[in-house]
Amino acid sequence: MMQLTETLRDGLKRGYTITVTAAELDEKVNDKLAEAQPDIEMKGFRKGKVPMALLKKQFGQRLLGEAMQEAVDDAMREHFEASGDRPAMQPKVEMQNGEDWKEGDDVVVDLSYDALPPIEEPDYTALSLERLVVKADDAAVEEALQNLAQSAQNFAPKEGVAEDGDQVVIDFVGRIDGEPFEGGAAEDFPLALGSGQFIPGFEEQLVGVSAGDEREVTVTFPEEYGAAELAGKEAVFSCTVKEVRAPEPMPVDDSLATRYGVESLDAFRTQIRERLEAEYAQASRALLKRALLDQLDEKVAFDLPASLVDAEAGQIAHQLWHDENKEIAPDDHSHGEIEPTEEHRKLAERRVKLGLLLAEVGRKAEVEVTDAEMTQAVMAQARQYPGQERQFFEFVQKNPQVQQQLRAPIFEDKVVDHIVEKVTVAERDVSKEELEAALKALEDEAES
């Protein structure tokens, strides 16, 4: 029998020595050979009739490593099943005298890990929450309508010169070193000045033109421009102005509604009111969730695995360092060790505590993230990569770590909902301004 001896029990820290005898290893190798023997063919022997001694000489060394790994894995699995321990992170496994070990020796392995702490279900009666409720008033709906009318503006021909915000209709031909380049020409192109649609400096040089004008626009393509053959190059665009148009907001009537695919202005107002109130409810939920997490952090206490806190503090310090040094790529780790501060550790302790607590509550409540919820999350993320959605889906399928990054916030929100159902929640009607002020205070707190 494999031996497992405890060497450390300090808080959540655990240490053990696993001993696998040479005889046990030899037996495992023999079992593997016996299992494979019926299918092995070798010159001079019928299939399945190769002598064990010859098989062992041929394949024994190769199977020894497999047997060793399986023996240690079996010992660890039996230990975790018997003890009920759940490791906070991947256990550390080190073979004693690994370099000096030779066939015929016992295998002695050191196993160490931080165990997850026992976590009690929170006392929900000790929690009290408030949900801010905002109704979309007529003024907010009309303001949204005016903004949508402005966005849906038409352009009508005007006399005189083009101003910032106007639209010019142009023919243009671009040249680099006097030679036209692919994609650098168009006819009757409507360009809104100030829209940032063209490369920096282009639109500004057309302010002041009139219909019939011809103007040469000289610009330099940015160094990070998508087309490598144009990046950093100076180009001259010969432009002919066909027409100058001034913006005209759409009237707030049924035509505005149909522009956005709604049958009437009244139906559009109803849709806008529902959308605004959904946005208010989402903001209110963010405040409710933060208040819940703050109360849980204050009222729930248990030992934290040091390895998890250390890893989280290091990650926070690394992320904040890159936020302050944006010229360094996030995956560039050549900057050396970044030592977490006391503030980093404090934040890490909160994150680890709440993460473990929500995970345990969710485990006991059998909270699951459904396939449909995961698909929805992947599709939402894929929209950030227009034209590359299929590649993104394949990337997610091949990367369990990315799947977990998408699953974690869904799981957390479902556990939060589960807890909120058990807590007394008072509702309070507030104005949009009060809700925005509460959100601003939350953002300021997060940044400080």
What features would you describe in this structure?
Helices cover 45% and strands 20% of the residues. The protein has three domains: 3-114, Alpha-Beta Plaits; 154-248, Chitinase A, domain 3, CATH 3.10.50.40; 276-447, Trigger factor, C-terminal domain (Trigger factor, domain 2, Orthogonal Bundle). The two termini are 57 Å apart. The protein has helices at 22-36, 52-83, 138-151, 254-259, 265-299, 306-324, 342-364, 371-382, 389-398, 400-420, 432-447, and strands at 3-10, 13-20, 92-95, 107-114, 128-133, 154-157, 167-176, 179-192, 214-220, 234-248, 424-429. Strands 6, 7, 8, 9 and 10 form a five-stranded antiparallel sheet that branches. The chain has a four-stranded antiparallel sheet with strand order 1-2-4-3. It is of the alpha+beta class and 448 residues long. It is extended.
Describe the structure in brief.
The chain is α+β, with helices and mostly antiparallel strands. It has 3 domains: 3-114, Trigger factor ribosome-binding domain (Alpha-Beta Plaits); 154-248, Chitinase A, domain 3, CATH 3.10.50.40; 276-447, Trigger factor, C-terminal domain (Trigger factor, domain 2, Orthogonal Bundle).
